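1st attempt posting a full record on here, be nice pls
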Amino acid sequence: MKIMKSIVASVLVIGMGSAFAAEPVALTETQMDNVTAGGSAVATALGSAFGLFSAATLTSATTSVSVLAVLPTQGGQITQDWTQSQSISSGFAF
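the predicted structure (as tokens):
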């Protein structure tokens, strides 16, 4: 069982370090005025144990943010955002 836990932990750690990005780029004031922000993230984890009894758990979380409107003000801007978050977990044992 310790070997299975080590394998699962190793796969999760390796999977988390697999994102690559280019060097940051500076934007001009004009370019920044046209930027609309938003994002989405998904995380999934699976844990399992085998032996006399078997068990598994699957957890998934999803979050997204979208900017609907940008309202200019005297001191900057106000954004109207739409955010959605969902989490699901299931498990079994036999």
